[in-house]
Every structure is written in structure tokens, then in C-alpha cells.
Amino acid sequence: MDQVAVFRGNAPAKIDDKARLKIPTGFRGVLETQYGRDLFVTSLTGESVRIYPMPVWVEIERKLAQIPSTHPSRLRFFSRVNYYGQTAELDNQGRVLIHARLRDAAGMTGEVDVFGQYDHFEVWNHERFVTKLANDPFTDDDARALAQFGI
């Protein structure tokens, strides 16, 4: 059985003074060998940053292309990911630029947390994420909902 390499776990990181995120070493190897260096950096809400390897993002776009172009949810999705989104490339030191609009909205300065989300990364300002955890606890309802999927 072939094992698919995935991004999982959390790696603390920092945004440098030039607004670049150095992709943590544990994630970088999988990113470069499995997907390459081309990325799409975006957000749905502006609260956090999503970094998609370009092949993953192209597959999302392929699926979206099958939805009628006037569908309100498709329009809202594209409005947000395009407003916050830009293509990017991993540099030779494994860094990616977080562009100004998204950096400001998501508070991408100083200490951040890079979360593996199976086929992409989610990056949060550390303090903002700790506050989110405190304000949005995992509940018994969440446990029951996941139990329906055998988790």
C-alpha cells in the first residue's frame, strides 16, 4: 500500500522583518519533494493564512470550475480567496512571502504557528490562535459529530 505524505502537527515559526515565513523543516521536505515550490497563499476570512502547494490549489480550482459560475457560494469563495490570495514561490532558504494585505489582516508578525492540514498549511498568529482555542472549545457535540465518522 502506497503511503501518501501529508502535513500534520504544529510547528512554531516566526515572520521575519521582510514578511517572510520560513516553512518549518519537517514540512519543507514533503512540500518540495511531493508538490514543488510553487504556492498559492490566501485566506477565506483574513484571520489566518492558508498556504496551498500549487498542484493542490489547481485541483480545488478544477472542482470549482464544475460549479456554475453564478453560484453564490462559488462567487463568495472566489471573492475572498482572490482578495487575500497571491501566487508565491518558496525561495532557496525555504521562505515564502506573506503579502501586505493578508499579513495585516491575519496579524502575521512575530511568533506564528504553522499547522499541517493534510495537503496544505494554515498559519496563525500565536496569540490569536491561543485566544481562539480558549473561546471555541471542543465540545461533547463535536465529539459526537466526529464519532459518526468513526473518530
Walk me through the topology.
Layout: E1 10-15, E2 20-22, H1 25-35, E3 38-42, E4 49-53, H2 54-65, H3 72-84, E5 86-89, E6 95-97, H4 100-106, E7 110-116, E8 121-125, H5 126-135, H6 140-147
Can you count the beta strands?
Answer: 8
The neighbouring-strand order within the major sheet is 1-7-8-4-3-5
Secondary-structure element series = EEHEEHHEEHEEHH
State the secondary-structure class: alpha+beta
What is the terminal separation in angstroms? Answer: 22 Å
Beta-strand content: 25-35%
Largest sheet: 6 strands, antiparallel
Helix coverage percent = 40-55%
| Mean of all residue-level pLDDT scores | 94
pLDDT < 50 runs, ≥5 residues: none
Q: Nearest-angstrom radius of gyration?
A: 16 Å
Number of helical elements: 6
Shape field: globular
Detailed description of the structure:
There is one protein chain. This protein is α+β, with helices and mostly antiparallel strands and 151 residues long. Helices cover 40% and strands 25% of the residues. The strands form two sheets. It has a six-stranded antiparallel sheet with strand order 1-7-8-4-3-5. A two-stranded antiparallel ribbon has the order 2-6. β7 (110-116) and β8 (121-125) form a beta hairpin. The two termini are 22 Å apart. The model has no long low-confidence stretch (mean pLDDT 94).
Descriptive keywords:
alpha+beta, two-stranded antiparallel sheet, 151 residues, six-stranded antiparallel beta sheet, 40% helix, single chain, globular, 25% strand, 6 helices
What is this entry, summarized?
The chain is an alpha+beta fold and 151 residues long. The protein has helices at residues 25-35, 54-65, 72-84, 100-106, 126-135, 140-147, and strands spanning 10-15, 20-22, 38-42, 49-53, 86-89, 95-97, 110-116, 121-125.
